[in-house]
Amino acid sequence: MSDTPQAGPAGPDTQTLTPETAPVAPPSRGRRRKKEGKPASLWTDAWHDLRRRPMFIFSLVLIAILLIMSFWPSLFTSINPLDARTCDLSTARQGPSAGHLFGRDNLGCDVYARTIYGAGNSILIGVSTTIITAVVGGLLGLIAGTRGGLTDTVSSRVTEVFFAIPQILGALLITATFRDKGLGIWIVVIALSVLAWPMTFRIMRAAVITARSQDFVIAARALGASQSRIMFGHLLPNAIAPVIVVSTINLGGFIAAEAALSFLGVGVQSPDISWGLMIADARSRFLEAPLPLVFPAVFLSITVLAFIMMGDAVRDALDPKLR
Question: pTM of this prediction?
Fold first, then answer.
């Protein structure tokens, strides 16, 4: 008689396990994270860091409001200050009232409406100048840093010539010379861009020189990658971060530079509106009616501060040494 136990009859609670019905163990947490997680990168880490910075959130909200104000000023005021019929000389320099929150200026125009509409030209000039300087200076710095040799030497000497020119004085000369050529506010953009691109060039060049000695660039060159592929596929993504930081901070500086040129009478011209032009118009009667000068000056300061705060936050997030 065999000693092997015989299987008894299957009871009502007994279930035969098959490969299809056998329970499968849930994947471990480590495997799940590895499968669902995305590879970490500088930009991903920076974004997670920025979302936890109150300074970045505060500046982002301010900039969003200012951009909406620039593109859709009618959402903030029903008065169109570009229409001369909204101005009344008999009410010049009147104080704030229910219908005119910031009062009226020397020509009887609504200061609040002019301040809202003035954001458009000021921010447009700042953003346009930032884009031009980032593209021109970044591209030239990328080429000079990649090629080196004579190209790098000549371009570096040219930028040193531009660095020797005071920015406001040079922009003052350019705008005063060409302001009657029918270019409007774009002469301010051109003047600031001509004198500001060398800073972006130098930052991009330094970042590219640092990156081109890294192992991944040497490996790509050894594998026969073309110079354009190395330049735009390997060097540019790893050298663009400092350019973004400086461009964000410079944007606020360009807005302030536009205000300075308009204040000196060579920037934005009437009937266009900008904060610098409003400050220039109100300075003659400042002691008698200070509000037409104070309000555009406050908006200008807040705008410049918002972009500088954002630039500082982005710099701290992109620099691992500051985390």
Answer: 0.79
